[in-house]
Amino acid sequence: MPRAGRTRARDLAKVASHDRGPGVTGRPGSTARRYGTVFNEVAAEYDRHRPAYPDELVDQACQAAGIGSGDHVLEVGCGSGQLTRSLAARGLRVTALEPGDNLMALARRNLAGAGEVEFVTARFEDALLPRERPIRASTVVALVTAPRSTQSTHSC
User: Fold this and answer.
1) How far apart are CA 57 and CA 34, in angstroms?
2) 122, CA 20 to 30 Å: which among 41, 45, 99, 131?
3) Residue 45 pLDDT more than 50?
């Protein structure tokens, strides 16, 4: 194999090795886990500079998900509470999940008196979530829901 071909093959092997390596598996101490702490480390700056979600976008997402006032939603990665505020303002009961303690402190402060919000400081895979009621899940701008007829006691 020509030298250029060997170099390219070696580079591709490195990429493939990295893609399967601990950096992207989410194992404790992995690169993926460390990336998840970045916004928490700069929580005040994140909160100050993060643009709000347009009301029209939140309304469309709620409509597409078939959720409205009184429904319970799980917000995965609530950050400093920007989307949480919009969901609570629409009468949704929100369980706001955030692993970053600095971001969660900001969310609690930002959302004091904003509606029915339960705060859970945990990663999604570690969270103890309520099983007694159906939950619809939301992430940053996507609200995901199961059809009402197929909801289990713990859907998301």
Assistant:
1) 30
2) 45
3) yes
